[in-house]
TrEMBL record:
Protein name as catalogued: DUF7847 domain-containing protein
Residues of the DUF7847 domain: 62-325
Keyword Transmembrane carried by entry: yes
Keyword set, alphabetical order: Membrane, Transmembrane, Transmembrane helix
InterPro entries, alphabetized: DUF7847
Segments traversing the membrane: 34-52, 59-84, 104-129, 159-189, 201-224, 255-276, 296-317
Highest taxon of source: Bacteria
Length: 359
């Protein structure tokens, strides 16, 4: 079932039909996880939880596959970077005097490249998870059964359009993040070198923090404006730019409501991820690396890299277990906006009685 077509019913509410006894109106049909009418907050949150309950195998399967591959790629990149600069790192850490910029520059640039590579890999993994949530909802809203293979094929078919939409949105939102990251790196370099040639980084620190404060509100506004693009890319088969345009039109006039519900969903997912990651954090603190002698640079680097890898594993496990929920909420907001503005409910009710489309 594609959600791209709009039935020719007049008005946003569609035909009401004849009233029943005493003006009683029959409840709207509910073939799947949500009633086919404009959705309230309870409908959206309840529908997201119901979808997870019915289709958790498909959602977790895609999430663990996506983030597992991302973790393997990032770990390999970190290993290659460390192997290339192991001697330089030991020299910097063992030096009696504070190292200069020429000493730390190769390490900073290499691990900066690893960081950018990691961001891209995580974006691809997120795009696959973002595509899987509308793919699952295509069946969940209509009450149709689903399988992992069915969801995987749908997600892979639309992942590049979703990635394009996510990447374009991320480039906009990344401006304040890059500025704050620049300020942080400049601060770290200043603290490490503690030499006169690092004095110029003070301007970078100031510009980074002030720039992040100036561009942050605009980035949030654009993020909400384009938040429905992954759902549009999957439900309607839109390309990246067309999905962004479609999201902008659907969000118009309902920005604050979408912002509030989305923020609530991401907050709930963040709390759940923290609770999930907490036991792993205790295991990391009690791990063997923190009981070893770290007086030498080699031992210190081993502890740092072990902790970094363990941290990545912990974060990705938490992400895999919680990433689906906010995306399901956002996808249901897309369905709600289509019902409110384009009278999608009769089309969904008709599709619910038809056999599932083959993928």
């Amino acid at each position: 079932m594609s959600y791209g077509s709009t039935p020719p019913y007049p008005g946003p509410a569609g035909p009401s039909g004849p009233p029943g006894w005493g003006g009683w109106m029959p409840p709207p049909p509910k073939p799947g996880v949500v009633p086919l009418r404009p959705l309230g907050l309870g409908d959206i949150l309840g529908g997201a939880f119901a979808t997870i309950g019915r289709h958790w195998k498909q959602l977790l399967g895609v999430a663990f596959a996506a983030y597992g591959l991302a973790l393997a790629a990032i770990a390999a990149a970190i290993g290659i970077a460390y192997s290339a600069h192991a001697n330089t790192l030991e020299h910097v850490l063992d030096a009696d005097a504070a190292p200069g910029w020429d000493d730390v520059a190769p390490v900073v640039f290499t691990f900066g490249a690893v960081y950018l590579f990691g961001l891209f890999v995580v974006l691809v993994a997120n795009a696959l998870v973002y595509a899987s949530c509308p793919a699952v909802l295509q069946d969940a809203v209509l009450g149709h059964p689903s399988t992992f293979g069915r969801v995987w094929r749908r997600s892979m078919r639309r992942v590049w359009s979703v990635l394009g939409a996510v990447l374009l949105t991320s480039l906009i939102v990344a401006v304040p993040m890059v500025l704050i990251g620049t300020a942080f790196v400049a601060t770290v370099i200043t603290l490490i070198t503690l030499s006169s040639d690092a004095g110029g980084f003070g301007w970078l620190i100031l510009i980074g923090f002030l720039g992040a404060l100036a561009t942050g509100p605009l980035a949030v506004w654009l993020w909400v404006k384009f938040s429905l693009a992954p759902a549009a890319a999957v439900f309607e088969g839109q390309g990246a730019v067309a999905a962004l345009t479609r999201s902008s039109r659907l969000v118009r006039g309902d920005w604050w409501r979408i912002f509030g519900i989305s923020l609530l969903a991401y907050g709930m997912a963040a709390v759940a991820a923290y609770v999930i990651q907490l036991p792993f954090s205790f295991l990391n603190l009690l791990g063997p690396g923190f009981t070893e002698d770290v007086s030498t640079s080699g031992a210190a680097l081993t502890v740092v890299i072990t902790s970094m890898v363990f941290f990545l594993v912990t974060v990705l496990i938490g992400q895999a277990l919680t990433a689906a929920f906010p995306q399901l909420v956002v996808s249901l907001l897309y369905v709600d906006r289509r019902i409110r503005t384009e009278n999608l409910a009769p089309s969904l009710a008709e599709a619910a009685t038809a056999p599932p489309a083959a993928y």
